């Protein structure tokens, strides 16, 4: 729950997810593999499925980000101010310079964002499974892409090809 809380807040604050994995998988990454092992474990078919899922996950993330920003604004906080308060809350050594009203608004936002967790996770899982991958395989490919330059190039080629054909 803590990991997801950090991840969902990061999503709302930065607006960027790396491969859509951040929301559901950052703290659950498989043990490190060597580049050679990773590359041989990921087939072109799996990478192609991952690319399709990646695009759809990114689209769903954009929708979720808009909802999250709306929640923040509906509570009467600016995104930048929410970010400042959140950063200070995440750092035990930092002191938060916020009024009690701002802190209450911040708490309400965090509660609302946390309540979105089950629906977001199920949507992401459904997207990934609709592309013929398990969540574990999706995470494995995402991790391999972070570590393997050759696989990154292959992924980029698949993405370019899918964009020109789509």
TrEMBL record:
Leader peptide range in chain numbering: 1-27
Domain DUF4168: 45-154
Source species, domain of life: Bacteria
UniProt keywords, alphabetically: Signal
One Pfam family it belongs to: DUF4168
InterPro entries per the UniProt record, alphabetical: DUF4168
Name the UniProt record assigns to this protein: DUF4168 domain-containing protein
Species annotation: Leeuwenhoekiella aequorea
